[in-house]
Structures are given as structure tokens and as C-alpha cells.
Design goal:
The protein is of the alpha+beta class. It has one domain: Gcn5-related N-acetyltransferase (GNAT) (Aminopeptidase). It is 33% helix and 22% strand. The chain contains 4 helices and 5 strands. It has a 5-stranded mixed sheet, sandwiched between helices. β3 and β4 form a beta hairpin. α1 packs across α2. It is globular, with a radius of gyration of 16 Å. It starts with 12 loop residues before the first strand and ends in a 14-residue tail after the last helix. The model has no long low-confidence stretch (mean pLDDT 91).
Length: 147
Amino acid sequence: MVPERKEVTLLIQIEVCSKGDAELLAGLNKQLIEDEQHDNSMNIGQLKLRMEAFLESEYKAYLFKESSEIKGYALVNHSRDPLYIRQFFICRDSRGQGYGKLAFSRLMERLGTSKADIEVLSGNERGCAFWKSLGFAERSVYMRLEE
């Protein structure tokens, strides 16, 4: 006997962030840095200042919410064609439930585009698999020489 599968309806709203959201975004960005095992050593204060600078430039940040609960965020560079998604994060307790795919779909609708560029750290296998599942294909390999 096959267990009945529950149908879950996810309702994601997208809110455009302001400079006043920089501290919240910095906290989410810190989690993203940890999860993707990035070598960025900035603390929350430094990340907040960097986020404020992003928001004063060609970048816009978007919060993903269900009711009033934050599910994640994205940081998008609007001066590039196609648009460049610099950061995309789904909160740890919301992963594996469809929020990432839905948030991405809603974000693309909100941005009015079907094309975007992203970068994924090569060691971030889960991230690579996620983006490939959405139809992204590798176009280049970014490399760094360390001393």
C-alpha cells in the first residue's frame, strides 16, 4: 500500500528590501556564507555595511516570506543583462520543501525575465544540483590562485 502524499500549498510573497533591512539581510548572508563554506570572514557588522552599499547601488534585495515568516532572500544586480543573482538563500529550516524553487519562480516573475546569471562555489554540490534542476547550465569556470 502506497502512503497518501500530502499536497502542500506554499504561498510565497516577495518584498523589496530597503537600507533599513540591511542588518536582517546581513544575518541571512552570514548563514549563506557558512552553508556554502565560502572563505569570506566578514562579521555581521561588516556584512551589514556591505549590504547597505549594495542597496545604494544597482542591486536590489528581495525577501521571501510566507505570512510573516522569512523563508529567504535574493540579492540581484539590475545593471547587468541578463540580471545577475549575486545571492540566493533559503532558510535552513525551510529547505527541501519546495520553497527554493517557488521563490525563484516568483522572483523571476517579479523581475519580468526568464534569463539570469548566477555563480555557485564549486564545492557547493547541493547548490549546483539545485540550480541545474531549474535549468541553469555551466558557462564558465572561475578560478583563483592562492599564495
